[in-house]
Amino acid sequence: MVMGPILLVRCDAGETFGVAPSAIETAGASAVIWEALEGEPRPSLDGVSGVVLFGSSFNVEHANEHGFIKDARELTLEAIDRGVPYLGICFGAQMLAWSLDAEVTKAPVREIGFEPIRPAAAAAGDPLLSHYADGDHVFQWHMDTFRLPEGATLLATGDDVPHQAYRVGGHTWGVQWHFEIDRSELDHWLDMFERAAGPLERSWGKGSDRVREEAERHLVEHASKGREVFTRFAMLAASVP
Q1: Is residue 44 part of a domain?
Q2: How many domains does the chain have?
Q3: Cα(147)–Cα(145) distance, rounded to whole angstroms?
Q4: One of 111, 115, 180, 185 is an active-site residue; which one?
Q5: Which CATH number is 205's domain given?
Q6: Domain annotation covers residue 11
Q7: Is 180 a catalytic residue?
Q8: Which end of the chain is flanked by fewer CB atoms within 10 Å, N or C?
Q9: Strands ordered across the beta sheet of 86-89
Q10: pLDDT per residue as tens digits for the range 3-46
Q11: In this predicted model, what pLDDT tens digit does every residue of 95-144 receive, in sequence order?
Q12: Is 196 part of a structural domain of the chain?
């Protein structure tokens, strides 16, 4: 059986996909991109082996103003209905919850930078996230959070935001942190934000210098574990009939 491509969904102008393309290629797969934010029509999932929906500067509450959000929801539901492996990152995790009628709300705190996660017991046997350990620092940049969809399995929690990763069924995941990030993407995001909105600390409570200092301590391991997630996802996608 010939493996189809992994569909990467871009929902933000600053999204470069970080470590995802090289990790997917390492697993022997190819990637195609849906430029959802640019208004490209929702693609067919015929022949697609997996879907990865990335982060966004927008939230699901903006669905009535930005049509791509509703299109992304339809794609998410189609992937679930057709049994196509799905991986939602940050906005993508919120999108998955929202698509399955779970509430998406403001988080108790705005998380930005590298924060520790706490894998749940179920993560030990999870096909994508079993390599994460208690206290691993992961990169966050979000103000929203979500309730778990009905029947979901919690895979990781955080000290301030309880729902950090979950699985629905056998091959559908939502992960709040940006495991795709690499150094060039991190710097790009920080620079883009401060050009558009001014000092990061003013609106997010943590300055860009501090985020970069955290990256010096945590990013190498973070990127390595992120690549492993994408490699595992591509291999799992290849195994699904």
Answers
A1: yes
A2: 1
A3: 7
A4: 180
A5: 3.40.50.880
A6: yes
A7: yes
A8: C
A9: 31-35, 6-10, 50-53, 86-89, 172-175, 165-167, 153-158, 104-119, 137-146
A10: 899 999 999 999 999 999 999 999 999 999 999 999 999 999 99
A11: 999 999 999 999 999 999 999 999 999 999 999 999 999 999 999 999 99
A12: yes
